[in-house]
Amino acid sequence: MKPTNLPSYWSLVIRFSAIFVIIVIIIEMIFELIKVGNLDAVSVSFNDFTWLKYLAIKLIIGIAYGLFMARITLNRLKKQKRG
User: Is the dihedral of CA 68, 71, 77, 79 positive or negative?
Assistant: First the structure.
């Protein structure tokens, strides 16, 4: 990515957020697999729409992370562009 063509803030937010949420979910699945021994416990724990709360929490944290990292990345790219 060239410093002269800065990416848009919102595209960075979406990219950072999506990657963060996916990685966190995969890591949690791995820990659940190690702890229980199979992934059947994951489907049991998501009964009665508890998966909505689970996903909402992950999305909120992911968006907060994306907002923060996008701002840091754009500031760094702007500094590189200046000098």
Answer: negative
For 66-75, write each residue's pLDDT tens digit: 999 999 999 9
Query: Residues near 15 by Cβ (< 8 Å), separated by ≥ 6?
Result: 66
User: Is pTM beyond 0.85 here?
Assistant: no
- Segments making up each domain of the chain, as ranges: 9-82
Give 62: exposed, middle or buried? Use CB within 10 Å, 0-12, 13-18, 19+: buried
Token output for 48:
């009665």
Largest CA distance in the chain: 55
Identify whether the C-beta of residue 81 lies closer than 8 Å to the C-beta of residue 4. Answer: yes
Query: How many C-beta neighbours within 10 Å does residue 54 have?
Result: 14
